Amino acid sequence: MKIAVLVSGGVDSSVALALLKQAGHDVTAFYLKIWLEDELAFLGSCPWEEDLAFVKAVCEHLNVPLNVISLQQEYWDSVVSYTIKEAEAGRTPNPDVLCNQFVKFDAFYKKIPTDYEKVATGHYAHLEEKAGVFELSCAPDLVKDQTYFLSHLSQEQLSRALFPLGKFTKEEVRKMALEFNLPTAQRKDSYGICFLGKISFDEFLEHHLKTRPGNLVEFETGKVMGQHKGFWFHTIGQRKGIGLSGGPWYVVTKDPKQNIVYISKNYHDAAKERRVFAVENLHWIANQPPITQNLHVKLRHGPEKALCTLELDSLKETGIVTLEKSDQGIAPGQFAVFYNGNVCVGCGVISLPPAPFCAS
Q: Residue 273, SS3?
């Protein structure tokens, strides 16, 4: 096949490219430039220089052509501006999900010639077509599995997607990188939000939203315990970064209108369970809701899934999720991603927090 391979300068996309080249496909590597020029001034240096140097070295090593494509305005419009607005509204955004939905598997599709049969990435996820339906399931390495970030893709998008690492663990990928003698074989993994690189999320928020001092208030007593720099720097369930002694303190909830962050030292009390929350903007990968009993759900990227039930409204556009066990980090704006066994069936946006410190 003729395949466009998205490469980032990391070991995963490098191995994906090498595997497809080894298999005899007609591959072209593509590197996406996403930062607008005014954002580069904030960063102080070009965040893609080092990454692109690794990409070029890998492509030269494998004798694969490389194209650099600018999706800077598209990225700003669909991912960065969304992240800023969600944070400013008091929610906890997840831009990586939107990056896949709107940039890598949408805007990029529209930028390249239609004769590319597939677009491949280094995601850890398994994709299989069954009776004309594309099924997305977890990679064997549950720590690295990235179905959470791919959960908002449509059947049309998945029909052109290819995940060469879907059956491998990270350890196996590292081993293959050494066997291919790739320049990225020993490069450390990057963590954090897709578009920030080495810049912290708090630095990004401070650049765009500035600071706005407000009160840290003890939830149970209403007593002012200290000050914060702005409610957008905090998320529900957060422990680190509150900056108070006598803890540990946890963020319970936020009041964006009054710029108050409510905190507590008793966040994990058994009587303060959080098991029920609402979801909206539901998206189902197979275009229809799954059986809503005995589903599993991820509330964040990682290996942990929680058993749950999902009660849909009459139009099946929103729902109420009930977890089997309490979760202390249910944050509005985050994605709840649903699984039927090992298969990722879709997702929704957490729209309402559970009532703070109320057992369901």
A: coil
Those residues with Cβ within 8 angstroms of residue 258's Cβ, 6 or more apart along the chain or in another chain = 214
User: Residues 321, 336: contact at Cβ < 8 Å?
Assistant: yes
The residue whose two tokens read 């080092």 is 50
Which among 3, 1, 6, 2 has a CA at the least distance from the CA of 105?
6
Beta strands in the chain (DSSP E): 2-6, 26-33, 66-70, 118-120, 126-130, 133-137, 161-162, 214-218, 224-228, 250-255, 260-264, 276-284, 295-298, 306-312, 319-323, 335-340, 343-352
> Taking the chain, what is the end-to-end CA distance rounded to the nearest angstrom?
53
Q: How far apart are CA 18 and CA 61, in angstroms?
A: 10
Rounded to two decimals, the pTM is 0.89
Question: With 70 as the cut, is the pLDDT of residue 41 above it?
Answer: no
Catalytic residues: 99, 194
Residue pLDDT, tens place only, 87-119: 999 998 888 899 999 999 999 999 999 999 999
Are 177 and 185 in contact by the 8 Å Cβ rule? The answer is yes
Whether the CA torsion 316, 320, 323, 329 is positive or negative: it is positive
Percentage of residues of the chain with pLDDT beyond 70:
89
Residue range 22-40, pLDDT digits in tens: 999 999 999 998 866 555 5
Give the relative orientation of helices 11-22 and 49-62 as an angle to the nearest 10 degrees. Answer: 20
10: phi then psi, degrees, rounded to nearest 5: -100, 170
pLDDT exceeds 90 at position 149 = yes
Q: Do the Cβ atoms of 350 and 277 come closer than 8 Å?
A: yes
Asked whether 3 and 119 are in contact (CB, 8 A), the reply is: yes
DSSP category for residue 216 = E
The helix/strand/coil state of 257 is coil
Q: Are the C-beta atoms of residues 213 and 243 closer than 8 Å to each other?
A: no
Instruction: Please identify which residue in the block is written with the tokens 């800023």.
Output: 84
